[in-house]
Design a protein that fits this description.
By secondary structure, this protein is α/β, with parallel strands linked by helices. It has two domains: 2-151, NAD(P)-binding Rossmann-like Domain (Rossmann fold, 3-Layer(aba) Sandwich); 156-248, ProC-like, C-terminal domain (N-(1-d-carboxylethyl)-l-norvaline Dehydrogenase, domain 2), CATH 1.10.1040. It is built from ten helices and eight strands. It has helices at residues 11-20, 37-42, 70-76, 131-144, 153-183, 192-201, 207-210, 214-217, 220-229, 233-248; strands spanning 2-7, 26-32, 47-49, 60-63, 83-86, 102-107, 124-128, 148-150. An eight-stranded mixed β-sheet has the order 3-2-1-4-5-6-7-8, with helices on both faces. β7, α4 (131-144) and β8 (148-150) form a beta-alpha-beta unit.
């Protein structure tokens, strides 16, 4: 039985807590957060604490906190014999180098507390300083169902930057699209089949070959018409910048 302590109750931490429970060969024995509010809402059947001095012994400590807090949490865990791993996309494994056993347990997905996720569909990117530690991280990843990828810190950073483009930036564009629809009393749901088809298409075509629209076909008249239609300067700049990038590609 692999005993696990989870540190952090943000978007990733909440979902990891749910995923790690009731799994064969895994035992989530403690959950830490600087505030107990999030922990108490989950009504978990194991120990919770907001005091780092109360962290108990375990085989694996998963740090799932804001990037800037990882070093201080790591320092507070000095002397622990178990593997210390964090879940951040852009933070090197070296930040945990003071620990004899350390690694990375990075779930590549967007998480919101209000939306359930299926860990069977979430790539779990792993890295460790020793093969034995990597083997244990693999066992945990396989127990919660995610496809396992052995990714080093440089590759993980590239993935994280790419994820910002395909997820965070794309979602911001959805927000602008919703704003334009709302301004003219058009349901945003009308665009959802288009969004779904765009996402499905790149399962079958490289994104570069799937590109369509006025910028891709060089329709300058439509591009200028759209720019005149947009009233916010920030939207105009974004439209011009992305259109130019598509044309350069």
């Amino acid at each position: 039985m692999i005993k696990i302590v989870l540190l952090g109750a943000g978007n990733v931490g909440i979902h990891l807590c749910r995923a790690l429970q009731n799994k064969e060969d895994l035992q989530l024995i403690q959950w830490y957060n600087r505030s107990l509010n999030s922990l108490e809402k989950e009504s978990v059947p194991f120990a919770v604490t907001q005091n780092l001095n109360d962290i108990i012994e375990a085989d694996l400590y998963i740090i799932s906190v804001s990037d800037s807090v990882i070093p201080s949490i790591s320092k507070a865990l000095e002397g622990k014999k178990g593997i210390i791993a964090h879940t951040a996309g852009s933070i090197s494994m070296e930040v945990l180098g003071a620990h004899e056993n350390h690694g990375i347990f990075y779930p590549l997905q967007t998480f919101s507390k209000q939306k359930e996720v299926d860990f069977n569909q979430i790539p779990l990117c792993l890295e460790a300083n020793q093969q034995e530690n990597l083997n244990l991280l693999k066992k945990v990843a396989q127990a919660i169902g995610g496809p396992v990828h052995l990714i080093d810190s440089a590759q993980r950073k590239a993935l994280h930057v790419a994820a910002v483009f395909v997820n965070n930036f794309t979602n911001h564009l959805y927000t602008i699209g919703e704003e334009l629809c709302n301004a003219h009393k058009v349901p945003f749901s009308v665009l959802q089949p288009l969004i779904a088809e765009t996402a499905d298409k790149i399962k079958h075509l490289p994104p570069s070959l799937a590109q369509t629209g006025p910028a891709a076909r060089g329709d300058q008249k439509i591009l200028e018409d759209h720019l005149q239609y947009l009233t916010k300067e920030s939207h105009q700049k974004l439209y011009q910048l992305i259109s130019a990038s598509i044309q350069q590609q």
